[in-house]
Amino acid sequence: MIQRFLLAILTLTVICSCEDIEDNTPALQGEFNNGFFQAIDARAIRNENGSFLIQGVTQTETLTIFINNGGANTYPLGENRPNYASFENASGNLYITNPEGGGSVEVTRFDTSAGVISGTFKFRAVLEGIDTLSVQNGVFFEVPFNREQDIDNGQTQVAGTFVARVDGQPYNPFTITASSTLNSVVVTGSTTSRSIRIEVPLDAELGTYSLPTSGFLASYMDNTLNEQAIEGNITIFENNPTTKKLKGTFAFRTDSKLIEQGQFSVTYF
Fold first, then answer.
1. What are the φ and ψ backbone dihedral angles of 53, each rounded to 5 degrees?
2. Among 123, 144, 165, where does a domain finish?
3. Residues 134, 158: one domain?
4. Total-model pTM
5. Do 139 and 161 have their domain in common?
6. CA-to-CA distance for 68 and 75, rounded, in angstroms?
7. Which DSSP helix (H) or strand (E) runs through 253?
8. Parent domain of 59
9. Which Pfam families does the record associate with it (predicted)?
10. Which of these, 131, 59, 61, lies nearest to 89 by C-alpha position?
11. pLDDT for position 106
12. φ/ψ (deg, to 5) at 133
């Protein structure tokens, strides 16, 4: 009798857990230390080299999972592996698995026809010299990748791709916008607490431009800073006003931040 009762409780728990995920698809959630993280929005980006960036946000936090392939497999985290997981809290502190943490990501469904990816994860991430974050029972379910751009107040939430490194740590913004004015194109990559902004002339020719240069601007902003580039460069590889495609790289230094290995490829309005 006791065994039947326990079996019934276990079955009910599994059914309820699945229903919770299905009702909130796409879903990304997990147990963080003694709390619970549940994204209010989740998406994935499939990069040209086949790697995947899976992200979920709350109003103040960003969870990022990067794996070097999207196929159904288990991807170890930590040390110097190409795969990593990171968590940015409301204060802009970044916990990351590489190199001192560890864990794994298991992709259980990779459906190119439906454009969705599902799986599980667990990891230990480190805020260097300060704190450690333990994540268990993580799930990403039916997260869409390379979907049509989401429209919000006339701007795209995913205008293309945008990556960089800030003080040596990966910077993977959840919101990427690109818009034009009479004279320039402004590209912004933002997390819940940080933002990098790149501005170039609307008619910028292909080439490399030193910062600061008239018409070319770069800045970094977080909860306490709003700093302009004092040196650096922006390189334009593609600028097509007809198709409104802009592609380039950037690297710059502000008074207190070093931004390196920046890349963007966007379609602007």
1. -115, 115
2. 144
3. no
4. 0.82
5. no
6. 8
7. strand 245-253
8. 2-144
9. DUF6252
10. 61
11. 97
12. -115, 125
Locate 10 and state its tokens.
Answer: 């276990």
Tokens describing residue 229: 């580039």
- CA 181 – CA 201 distance, rounded (Å): 9
- Mean pLDDT calculated for residue range 196-215: 96
By the 8 A CB rule, do 60 and 90 touch?
A: yes
Same domain, 139 and 157: no
Number of domains in the chain: 2
Q: What's the start-to-end Cα distance of the chain, in Å?
A: 66
DSSP state for residue 41 in the 8-state scheme: E
pLDDT score of 219: 98
User: What are the CA-CA distances from residue 190 to residues 50, 88, 100, 163, 267 (Å)?
Assistant: 23, 12, 26, 10, 16
Beta bridge partners of 143: 117
Mean pLDDT of the chain: 87
Distance CA 211, CA 200 (A): 11
Task: Please give the Cα distance from 219 to 229 (Å, whole number).
Answer: 6
Q: Is 201 helix (H, G, I), strand (E, B) or coil?
A: strand
**Rounded Cα gap, residues 251 and 236, in angstroms:** 12
Q: Containing H/E element for 132?
A: strand 131-144
Instruction: Say how many residues make up the chain.
Output: 269
**44 vs 55: CA distance, rounded Å:** 6
- Give me the helices (H) in the chain, please: 2-23
Same-domain check for residues 197 and 250: yes
What mean pLDDT is predicted for residues 106-135?
94
